[in-house]
Amino acid sequence: MRAGLWRSIALMTLMTIASGARAAEPVTLDVFYAFPAFAKFHEPIAQEFMKRHPDIKIVFRAPAPTYDDGHQAMMRAALTHQLPDVYYSGYDLLEELVHALVKQNDLVDLGPLLAAEGYPAGNSVRIWRAQRDVISAVMRGDIAPNAGYEKIVKDTAAMMAQ
Fold this sequence. Notes:
Elements: H1 2-18, E1 27-32, H2 39-52, E2 56-60, H3 67-80, E3 86-87, H4 91-103, H5 110-116, H6 124-140, H7 145-161
Parallel strand pairs: 1-2, 1-3
Helix pairs in contact: 1-2, 1-6, 1-7, 3-4, 6-7
């Protein structure tokens, strides 16, 4: 279950990095995740992000009770072309979902977009590990979520500058 939180903070970090080249018009991201209890992680991160980026709004769908329920909801949404912009999948279910979405051309390769923003592909594992360590510290209660967000943004920017 911790993987969802790690991906959430990493996503917010990537959106922070990519925010420099977005259009002037407001953007709304539709986000879906599993486990309602995870709202205590997702909501504060989203609120802080939106405070810093008022032209981006993050809207959460009602969370699925489990990853399996979320997976089924995503498979139905794929059939009706009502997919969210962002979904936190269980790793064990990701392959089936990816295969279904590839067939419909419903996946976006973020690699070229991140590369255009200067995101260093060679540093991505190092950056992910640093973000993971901060997320673990937040989950243990060693640092507050806002301080964790600050650290991730600062450390990621420093690693990208290398």
